[in-house]
Amino acid sequence: MANFVPTVCVGCGLLCDDIEVKVEGGKIVSTLHTCARGEWTLRRAHSNSRLTSPLIKKNGKLVKVSFEDALSRAAEILSEAERPLLWGWSSASVEAQRLGILLAQRLGGVIDSTSSICHGSSILAGREAGFRTATLGEVKNRADLIVYWGSDPSHSHPRHLSRYTIIPRGIYTQMGYEQKQLVIVDVRKSRTGKVANQILEVEPNKDYELISAMRMVLKGKNIRDKEVAGIPVKVINQVIQTWKTRQFGVIFVGLGLSMSRGKYRNIEVLYKLVQELNDYTRFVAIPMAGHYNMVGFNHVATWLTGHPFGIDASRGNIYSNPGETTGAEIIMRDEFDAMLVLASDPISTMPLPIARKITRKPLVVVDCLETPTTKIADVVLPAAMTGIEVEGTAYRIDSVPIRLKKFLEPPRDCKSDEEILSLLISKIEKLGKK
Amino acid sequence: MPAMNAFQIYKLLPQTNCGKCGEANCMAFAVQLLSGKKKLEACTPLFQEPKYADKLKQLQEIFTVTDEVKETGLVFHEDKCTGCGNCVMVCPEDVAASPLIAGGKGSRADGVVFRVENGKAKIIDLTKCRRMGTQKTCRVCEMYCGAGAIEIRSVGG
């Protein structure tokens, strides 16, 4: 096993930095320590549906053109638009995201990342209630109570359990899994539930009630009901008593909380519970971001514009109002006249009424694989894969920036997201809009 | 095979405490069977007397080592594996092999039972497994496999 090279996986928000890849003749031969999700992500580099040349729609068909032609057409579409929507960004490097925000400002458009339909609500909740967090390293070394609330890492982040939470042995958790306690709060017995010490099966959409009941118990108040959200009050009492006595507790917040009824209010009340538990012991909460650089976009956008997502530059100044300037709502109300999609597939991931509206507007797509979105696009620019064919920086789910490595050469016509965006910006500058 | 205790095995034995197997009584023999120190054949009445035929059949089902089951009783279903690495990080022998594994990172160290390769766990060296020896009760890999890809088809534990 001589020629394995260490690299960073871009399969999910965990950015595992211990994986190794063996490359022979420009192809991945075998990988070490990757989960099924990471393996699939890395092997996409040799996928049959890889985009290798720029495409333009002519008479309803996508035809191969030179990069220069495709770039000019994309620049035309975007600079003719009054309020273009720039969507995607969660699977791009921080450098590309920065240029994306500059492009939105130059065009007077709206830029939004997929976090607005994912974990954006966790950030809004953090603004309301304050945010107590820790890095995953701290979790590994100190945490002896792990709670997955509305998330199932066995599916979304397969190596979460083995790398950071219940299984590894840390500095203050030398006993590993014997010392740690795993609690699952979910609407069903998830796969992670198989290894849990305790499962709280909450009724769907009743998380807010359960958390409020927990806060009441923590404050020493009596609950008169027999059960709250399908969980007996006795169990809630016992859970809070246990949580208070642990050394270090961490709650991993999943989409089950952030996108069920109540949305960011669920997480807000959870953050308040976390703060109140800090009166007794150390307690933190970490949102489980899915895409590998979703957290990165929120950071970049915040340091460039002051808002984490849903940034509207069409009024001449920066404006953000989640629900008004976020991608799905803008598409739903037809408040855009062209769209740039980078590293995302809204046609597959968005609900049908929204997807249908996307098809009616001029669409520029920057992606490395053929997707339903690229099939209906007017211009397709092929991109190289960040973390596989080009370098970049990404933020892990706990906001730790990690440098992504490169171990393959991109196909000839594929450029990095960063390069495509900077060429696009200079092209638009030349066209001179507004 | 579900985990069985000595008492469940004892119920299937003749319960005459004849001592032909060399143990003091049938309960002691059941314990020895579970730990793998004695073979079922040592109990001669079970094979000779036809009234135990039903019990013998059940016992043989439990203790017969099939082709795919090695001495450890560990069966690995590769199609179910998600490569999460829980088995690697939880196995006491793997943890002993490398401090990296103890800390939750992948390692290329030798002498491990499991390693994740190409998105699937792979059995590297089953002779290192604790179940090869007398620690027949260890089944942490089965317990922590969320996908149900590891199954321990053996009694005990």
Q: Can you list the strand order of the major beta sheet of chain B?
A: 1-4
Kindly provide the name of the CATH class of the largest domain in chain A: Alpha Beta
In the CATH scheme, what's the topology name of the largest domain in chain B?
Alpha-Beta Plaits
Assigned CATH class of the largest domain in chain B = Alpha Beta
Shape designation of chain A:
globular
How many distinct folded domains of chain A? Answer: 2
**Largest interface, by Cβ-Cβ below 8 angstroms: which chains and how many residues each?**
A-B, 34 and 31 residues
Architecture of the largest domain in chain A, CATH level 2? 3-Layer(aba) Sandwich
Second CATH tier, the architecture of the largest domain in chain B: 2-Layer Sandwich
Number of beta strands of chain B: 4
Q: What count of helical segments of chain B does DSSP give? A: 8
**Total count of domains of chain B:** 2
CATH topology (level 3) name of the largest domain in chain A: Rossmann fold
Helix content of chain A: 25-40%
What can be said about the biggest beta sheet of chain B?
Answer: 2 strands, antiparallel
Q: What strand order characterises the main sheet of chain A?
A: 5-4-18-17-16-6-7-15
Q: Percent of residues of chain A in beta strands?
A: 15-25%
Q: In percent, how helical is the residue content of chain B? A: 25-40%
Question: Oligomeric state of the chains?
Answer: heterodimer
Please tally the β strands of chain A and state the result: 20
| Helix-strand topology string of chain B | HHHHEHHHEEHE
What features would you describe in this structure?
- The complex is a heterodimer of chains A (434) and B (157).
- By secondary structure, chain A is of the alpha/beta class.
- Chain A contains 17 helices and 20 strands.
- Chain A has two domains: 51-116 and 293-390 and 411-431, Rossmann fold, CATH 3.40.50; 120-287, Dimethylsulfoxide Reductase, domain 2 (3-Layer(aba) Sandwich), CATH 3.40.228.10.
- Chain A has helices at 36-43, 67-80, 94-107, 120-129, 136-142, 153-156, 160-163, 207-218, 233-245, 255-258, 264-277, 294-305, 327-332, 346-349, 352-359, 372-375, 417-431; strands at 4-7, 19-24, 27-32, 55-58, 61-64, 85-88, 110-113, 145-149, 181-186, 198-201, 227-228, 231-232, 248-253, 282-287, 311-312, 339-342, 363-367, 379-382, 392-395, 401-404.
- In chain A, the strands form five sheets. An eight-stranded mixed sheet of chain A has the order 5-4-18-17-16-6-7-15.
- In chain A, helix 3 (94-107) runs parallel beside helix 17.
- The model of chain A has no long low-confidence stretch (mean pLDDT 92).
- Chain B is α+β, with helices and mostly antiparallel strands and 157 residues long.
- Chain B folds into two domains: 6-63, 3-methyladenine DNA Glycosylase II, Chain A, domain 3 (Orthogonal Bundle), CATH 1.10.15; 74-152, Alpha-Beta Plaits.
- Chain B is 34% helix and 9% strand.
- In chain B, the strands form two sheets. In chain B, strands 1-4 form a two-stranded antiparallel sheet. A two-stranded antiparallel sheet of chain B has the order 2-3.
- The longest helix of chain B has 11 residues, at 53-63.
- In chain B, helix 1 (6-12) crosses helix 2.
- Chain A binds chain B through residues 1, 4, 18-20, 30-40, 140, 154, 158-159, 161-164, 167-170, 176-177, 191-192, 194-195, and chain B through 81-86, 88-90, 95, 100, 102-108, 115-120, 140, 143-148.
